[in-house]
Amino acid sequence: MSGKWGVYRCRFTLAILLLNWASVSHALTYQEALSLAEARASELKARQNTVTAAQAARVSAGELPDPKLVLGVDNLPVQGSEAWNTTRDFMTMQRVGVMQEVTNADKRDAQRRLAEANVARTGLELEVERLSVRRQTLLAWLKVYYAEQRRALLDQIDAENHLQAMALTSQLAAAQGKVSESLQARQEAATLADRRDELVRDIVTARVELARWVGPAASEPLTGDPPGYVPHPEHLRHTLDRHPDIAVYGAQEASAQAEVALAEAAKKSDWGVEMDYQHRGPAFGDMVSVLFTFDLPIFAQKRQNPQIAARQQELERVSSERETMVRQHTVQLETMLAEQASLTHQINRIDQEWLPLNQEKLQVTLAAYSAGKEPLTSVLDARRALLETHMKRIELEERRAATETSLHYLSEEGWQ
């Protein structure tokens, strides 16, 4: 009998271990969430297509146009006895040749520079999009994580209230308690139930937002602690202008400069060459012709110059937008640094002052209530104050984690 019991116990233990392993193996860490988001983000796929297109276009940039095949008939008579005959008139020739247009060197160089700038720009835009996907995914993961933290805290308070309600019920049964205290405990339970409903709503909303990035994995339980990041203000200020959000404007400036050079190169003449072999009737000798063509940009004031001015204005626009982006990032950085420092001070004050004080107040109130010197209302108020302090700490932790996440993606560690 004892042997069978040992087998059953082993099987039971193995089942528990397998269940635990399954639950752990299907939990979602923030790193897994980031990987899933990058793998399935349609925004990144679209940006990658743009990069691939720019790289493909770079291959042909600055190349000469394709040569042209020339076929035709020259000096074909249309009247008289030799009309429409290609062999009787000595001036009639059947022409076959090839023509090549040659773009000037400055224009081809500007085209290559423009293609290189477009590749760099699209690569940086892809990086900007990747950082945005990672940041938004992590913020969504943090929302779920801290909402679950609030629910765990509420579960703990709810369990304590349940024990207290059972004690009150026993006291009432023994004619030692007050009906008003039982009502107060039930009111407190109803209040906690309302807060639980709000938390359930917040958790559902947060998981829906997380599912936007990671898909069905958003329904899995979360595991692991949120990422920690200690900002270094001076380093962040020093490297701010290299952030992809700002660096992309450098690539746009290079592209705009190439556009200006391309417009200026249009004032220089392109040229072309054509070589033809001309076949005549049997009584006449064949001929060879060579022709050269040259563009004549003699109306620059109405054609090339306005285009150059337009491209220069576009370059000025990009430079101004870059300066605007630098200022916005500077304001954002300083604001977040101040926010992070303020939140850290508040969390430390809660840990060092508010939580110990509220915990001590609750213990004193419980002791007084047990001695019959304080009503149950005082106990519930003290417990509610302690709960609110814990809730506030979680809220501050969430805000600090969100702020530090944004700071992390302003730092080199976040975008390299």
Q: Can you tag this structure with a few keywords?
A:
alpha+beta, 10 helices, 416 residues, four-stranded antiparallel beta sheet, 4 strands
Please specify the SSE layout and strand pairing.
Blueprint: H1 2-25, H2 30-40, H3 42-60, E1 68-74, E2 93-102, H4 105-173, H5 179-214, H6 233-238, H7 244-265, E3 271-279, E4 287-294, H8 304-370, H9 376-408, H10 412-415
Antiparallel strand pairs: 1-2, 2-3, 3-4
Helix pairs in contact: 2-4, 3-4, 4-5, 4-7, 4-9, 7-8, 8-9
Structure in words:
It is elongated and about 135 Å long. It is built from ten helices and four strands, in the order αααββααααββααα. α2 (30-40) crosses α4 (105-173). The chain starts with a helix and ends with a helix. Residues 10-25 have low confidence and may be disordered. By secondary structure, the protein is an alpha+beta fold. 70% of the residues lie in helices and 8% in strands. The protein has a four-stranded antiparallel β-sheet, with no helix packed on it.
Q: What is the number of strand segments? A: 4
Largest sheet: 4 strands, antiparallel
Order of the strands making up the biggest sheet: 1-2-3-4
Strand content: 5-15%
Could you name the ranges where pLDDT drops below 50 across 5 or more consecutive residues?
Answer: 10-25
Brief synopsis:
By secondary structure, the chain is α+β, with helices and mostly antiparallel strands.
